[in-house]
TrEMBL record:
Residues 88-132 form the Flagellar basal-body/hook protein C-terminal domain. It comes from the Bacteria. This is Flagellar basal-body rod protein FlgC. Belongs to the flagella basal body rod proteins family. It comes from Aquabacterium lacunae. One of its GO terms (cellular component) is bacterial-type flagellum basal body, rod. The keyword Metal-binding does not apply. The basal body constitutes a major portion of the flagellar organelle and consists of four rings (L,P,S, and M) mounted on a central rod. The rod consists of about 26 subunits of FlgG in the distal portion, and FlgB, FlgC and FlgF are thought to build up the proximal portion of the rod with about 6 subunits each. It is found in: Bacterial flagellum basal body. PROSITE patterns: FLAGELLA_BB_ROD (PS00588).
Length: 136
């Protein structure tokens, strides 16, 4: 595998993890929202990744194939005085689990950082190779 393919592979992973971070941020921003007038609360979203070939045999990257909504029912809290309460006095909140989303955020952030580090290391190795070629 060419050293330059490393940038394609890591770049695809960085792009996918950036999209995952955006979805996690959206989920966290809507963690405590309630169902609107249509009675449908915000549903958590999750990124689906897929391995994708990068040209050479054996070289693969990653891409986002889908962003799925979580069909888990929203959290129902009994609060008859809330303006969005239903006839039984329950308010439906989003199904976002903030702890799970924080774990996803940390995981995506570390994956992003690791792939940036791979690209920086590859760049450093290529620069050292060029310097060795200039010295002779």
């Amino acid at each position: 595998m060419s050293m330059f393919k490393i940038f394609n592979v890591s770049g695809s992973a960085v792009s996918a993890q950036a999209q995952r971070l955006n979805v996690v941020a959206s989920n966290l921003a809507n963690a405590d929202t309630v169902a609107g007038p249509d009675r449908s609360p915000y549903k958590a979203r999750h990124v689906v990744f897929e391995t994708t070939p990068m040209g050479d045999v054996g070289t693969a990257g990653v891409r986002v194939t889908n962003v799925k909504e979580d069909d888990t029912p929203g959290r129902r809290v009994h609060d008859p005085k809330h303006p969005q309460a239903d006839a039984e006095g329950y308010v439906t909140y989003s199904n976002v689990n903030a702890v799970e989303e924080m774990v996803n955020m940390i995981s995506a952030s570390r994956s992003y950082q690791n792939n940036v580090e791979v690209m920086n290391t590859a760049k450093s190795l290529l620069l050292k190779t060029l310097q060795m070629g200039q010295g002779s």
